[in-house]
Amino acid sequence: MGELQKNTRFEHLLRLADTNLILGHRMSEWIGKSPILEEELALTNIGLDLIGQARALYEHAVAVSGEEDNRDADDLVFLRDAPEYKNLLLVERENGDFAHTMVRQMFYSAFAVPVWEALTRSVDSEVAGIAGRAEKESLYHLRHASEWILRMGDGTEESHQRVQDAVDALWMYTGEMFDMDEVETAAFEAGHGVDLTAVRSEWEKTVREVLTAATLDYPEDCWMLKGGRTGKHTEHLGHLLSDMQFLQRAYPGQKW
Amino acid sequence: MYSQGLMGVEETPGGEQDLLDRFQARIDAGEKIEPNDEMPEAYRKTLIRQMSQHAHSEIVGVYPEANWVTRAPTLRRKLQAMAKIQDEFGHGLYIYSAAETLGVSREEMVGQLLSGKAKYSSVFNYPTLNWADLAVIGWLGDGAAIMNQIPLCRCSYGPYARAMVLVCKEESFHQRQGYEAMVALMNGSPEQKAMGQDAVNRWWWPIMMMFGPHDADSPNTETGVKWKIKNFTNDELRQKFIKATVPQAKLIGIEIPDPDLRFNEETGDWEHGEIDWDEFWSVVKGQGPCNHDRITARRKAHAEGAWVLEAAQAYAAKQAARNAA
């Protein structure tokens, strides 16, 4: 097991952090718009978990990068433009209706659970610690989203159609999660990362179980879009950033 | 955040004199009234109205904050804003549940909010125009709410009093958090200081109005005090709030936008300028800057979420049928 290059290690942490931050931000966009009061609490809670995970990872990434890079966690969040963001495409997709949001969450959490589980064995003890808590949180997110998908899929004709549409629309963004590019491979080989090809079979099993129970069709193989981890995003990310980064951009260099 | 206590209550104690006497004796002995206890109908109705207004206020009060939550300037402020909003939804849920012990359903209460029949605190009908508004809502808005709600921890209705214990702990935290965010702005750049002062200029009077009409114009107060569902009058609470707030404002260089505000050495009270009650009543009656937006947002969430609830009900019915088979 070789030593992981510092910039690869930083990049690997950033990918994880960005994905959780962007999905957490999407949850905050639901505030005041949820179908029921209990769900206002749940969605905000999921958002808080995700942004909390992201914050821990950014702070660690800052520590890892050391003196060569003087950006702090807030700089990473509020002062990078879209091409520098390394999140998965799936999580930047707009909320859409409640079905879209729950399917996006289920697709991501079904991936996050085995990823965090594997990361509890990371040689980086800081990451292993973050992963221990995040795994528990992600299990709850997966259960929450799956329960709703069950109700929507096996609910009314309208809800069935909406949730099937969401599954079909978001499917093309799921493939890149398992892509072992140079950074993921190097991180895995050095004991910092995860074998994402192994995660794929677990993900497929989870998703198939949820969709089948919800009387939904498991989509056929299709062209998978990728690019999130290398900064090639969809149109949706830029608008999210212009909203999220407004104050830091309009009033640079201030303490809040 | 908070409700405008006892607004629009017309009922006066009526019904059987015996019941009223027995009930008053229990109240005077400091006993808590519990859901299954006998109570005058006017007491029950007044509490339903007060508690549902309070719960509605917690829910509608989220919108002015939600307007800035996605634009919070740091990770810390982002997490704070989301956690505060989550607390408020929790308060709403908790208070609706406490109100349900009086024999009214949440659906019914929410229906009254959506139809415009039920009121919520008029302060939420003002807009949040810059980031400092979130700090001011915490510092002054929640600060005013605490003045009202701490006495409610000792109110005569058990479920409401117990709910208020938790709510007050969280509101006190929000108040300190809001002030801390305000301190950061007032220690910041000239633009940040201007944001802070601008926010106070816009929120001060609506927050003064949160305490409700002057005692002389507030016929509900007497009954409320007698039944221990209101332990201080509107003017007493307003006075407590000013006393607590003036030194906090001074410390961070905030000017209170009331040229007539002055301390009366003889009475030991603060005297303040005239509150614009015409504005207050027009906002209460629906003509505030954001009344339409707030209720529209609430109705939209309800309408757009209807298919989700229908799905959950359909699924539950299917499950019940499967289990019965």
TrEMBL record, chain A:
Pfam families for the chain: PaaA_PaaC
GO cellular component: cytosol
Gene3D superfamilies: 1.20.1260.10
GO BP annotations listed: phenylacetate catabolic process
InterPro entries, per database record: Aromatic_CoA_ox/epox (IPR052703), Ferritin-like (IPR012347), Ferritin-like_SF (IPR009078), PaaA_PaaC (IPR007814), PaaC (IPR011882)
Protein's name according to its UniProt entry: Phenylacetate-CoA oxygenase subunit PaaC
Organism this protein belongs to: Pseudosulfitobacter pseudonitzschiae
Gene for this chain: paaC
Automatic annotation (TrEMBL), chain B:
Domain of life: Bacteria
GO molecular function, a single term: phenylacetyl-CoA 1,2-epoxidase activity
GO biological process entries: phenylacetate catabolic process
InterPro entries from the UniProt entry: Aromatic_CoA_ox/epox, Ferritin-like, Ferritin-like_SF, PaaA, PaaA_PaaC
GO cellular-component term (any): cytosol
NCBIfam families documented for this protein: PA_CoA_Oxy1
Annotated protein name in UniProt: Phenylacetyl-CoA 1,2-epoxidase
Species in which this protein is naturally found: Pseudosulfitobacter pseudonitzschiae
